[in-house]
Predict the structure.
Amino acid sequence: MKLPLLNGSVGFPAYGSIKMVDASLAMPHRRDTSGRVRLVPVLLLLPIVILFLVGYVVPLAQLVLKSLQHDGAWSLKSYIEIANSPAFVWIVLRTLALAATVTVVCLLIAYPLAYAVSKCPPRLAAFLLLIVTLPYLTSVLIRTYAWIVLLSPNGPINQLLLHLGLISEPLQMVFNSVGVYVGMVQVQLPLMVFPLYAVLARVNPSLAKAAQSLGSPPTDAFLRITLPASMPGVISGCTLVFLSSLGFYITPELLGGPDSYLIAQGISLRVLILGNFDEAAAQSSVLMLTVIAVFLIFRQRIAEELDDRPHNNVSLAGKSTSGLSAQWPILERLTASLHGPSMRLHEALTAVRRPLLYVSSGVTLLLLVLPFVVVIPLAFSDAPYLTFPPPGYSLRWFSSLLKNTQWLDALSFSLKWAGLSALLSVAIGVPAAFALVRYRFSARVPVYLLLISPLIVPHVVIAVSLFFALAGSSLIGNPLAFALSYTIIGAPYTVVVMIAGLKRFNRTLELAAASLGSSPIVTLRTVTLPLLLPTLASAALFAFIVGFDDVVFGLFLSGPAATPLPMRMWDNIRLEISPQIAVIAVLFLIVLALLMLLRLFVGAVVQVRRPQESLHR
């Protein structure tokens, strides 16, 4: 699951707020228009809501209903069977344990990095966040492929450990639970860094300085001020990583072994190989309802994106002197229990805290970029098989790719349909974002949660529901099925990115145009959309990447005439593991770099052409 970045913060659930504008500001000419104003958000939301009802809500509802049937009759037999299955119970417990462990590890290594970045000068912070963003935007398949190379018995990690004399024989770190944990942590790490940084960057640094000026050691000030102030980011990051890990499929399937079999793999096995559809529907429903339950528990934090109240720098003013007891009594008790005997510990930590912070942050950044250190040289290997480091360098694998019609056809298919789906996502997501930001209506939060829920519901569940819904038609193996599925998972990114962009948008320019007699449509075309071009470009980029990178929907919906590039990569990794994937990775990185440069260019052009606000005051 990818979540959009905006100015160093994650778009979902973002921190800060959307300052909702009254409908009268959205429609400057209000004479006898109250009925039309109430109708506007309905019309703006209608396309995306219809699409979600037809292609998302109804298939999921049918999936649940199918799980309640057996041999055409209503029955709980499927649930009874999986509940009485020790294997299924063990798989569920293993999945929960993996998700919890990955979440805790991500928190422990992401917090120092997010804290260090929040203390850096703006340009350095932007560069470090770019390093975090690069793997976040890169295909999970590519990163998983790199970890197969890195963790293999003949891989660079084992070779380094052997060279240092730390081990006497290579460790088995791939195709078992070790590989799954390492790969999952690296994949999910950005989801923890972004919300943590978004909150830590807003913590008022004068609070900690004031505490230190009163004699509090830096570590004590951190425990009493910074840590509790960052708890919203901790909760959000942990929620995102935990939910994403519950239904993750690609990395456990490619890096794992029999001891790391998870519920998402069990669902796909029952659909694609065993044909046990009733039990697959029941397992999918259990996974989906578990995720939705956690999602709804934290719905207030998630829906904070639509909060009307302004969010300033985090402050603990007005709370207890420690800043902890009001909201986080556990942290208060922990700090109090450590206060007496821990002054020498505080002093020791103060002496080494900066080196520890720098080292831990550097190790975390290395973990994020390490796959690229392997993938790029492999693309230029002259060896006829996969080996690292390459014995020599050439362009043989690039030449092989350009001569392989199967790869080129798959690439063309993915570019075409991921691109089309990105355009559709923008076409329906942008009006929805305007409706959610510019208008107040009673169903605003439920609609918002519905539109972003595909970011949370495991893709394997959505794919299985679409497989069942389309099985009786000719759409399985049809490109239109991919257009539908890519739009379903791409539109939420458009909504989230556009909401964040509209939150930062200065409406005085629109009001100035309206005061000069410009109609709302003309203002939208000549003022609003041109200024939102960088945001629109980001929205389209995320919607394109999420479709272009998808594997799970390809497993259930592909056919001879509809095989996307990730499916070719998937088969290659599982059956051959050749340097061909590294070539795809290099080409992907080049295209990604060009798209990001285009996004920056559009933003720079808009900034140059943006009128000075002082002229409109």
In short: The chain has two domains: 45-56+380-610, 76-305+314-377. The chain has a mean pLDDT of 82. DSSP finds 28 helices and four strands in the chain.
